[in-house]
Design a protein that fits this description.
By secondary structure, the protein is of the alpha/beta class. Helix content is 43%, strand content 15%. The longest helix is centred in the N-terminal third of the chain and has 13 residues.
Amino acid sequence: MVLRHRQPSLLVPQLEQLLDLGVRHVEIAWSPGADWIAQGRQLIAAFPDLRLGASSICSTAALESVLEAGFAYGVSPILDGALLERSAAAGFVLVPGVMTPTEVNQARALGCSIVKLFPATTVGIGHWRRLREPLGTPLPFCIAAGGLKPSDVRPWLEAGVDAVALGASFAAEPVRQLLVDLNVPP
């Protein structure tokens, strides 16, 4: 689940709801500003049962803010070797965004065991599976993200991705039903 707000501290009600639903991994979108770091730290301390990561990491400044705030992991919409190198040096997992066969191959060559297929709706549900033969296996663990709704989760998993990230489409009831349908324990 990805949540966006310029003031992360205002995401407390959504985080409480997600925790109650049984969601355990939530990404908070990075945004510039010193308050973001302090508010990120507050959320991490307030929600020890959530594994909070940061998303939208596209620059060294963003990565440094995320590291300073203490997030558990990071996600980027782009594949950037310098960001991956800095993350590795810090012992921090950064999941890069990929779309094309070239980007998937580059991510694999850079040692990425996890990638984010982004934006997933642009390439379509069968894209990841179609990459397997020409690129060969193993492909990295794939999280489909970008424009997906709770009703898309099962079809995308069945189409070959390993996980699905939801964002702006968050609504408690569809997510609750999805977790029930997928037999995810509360």
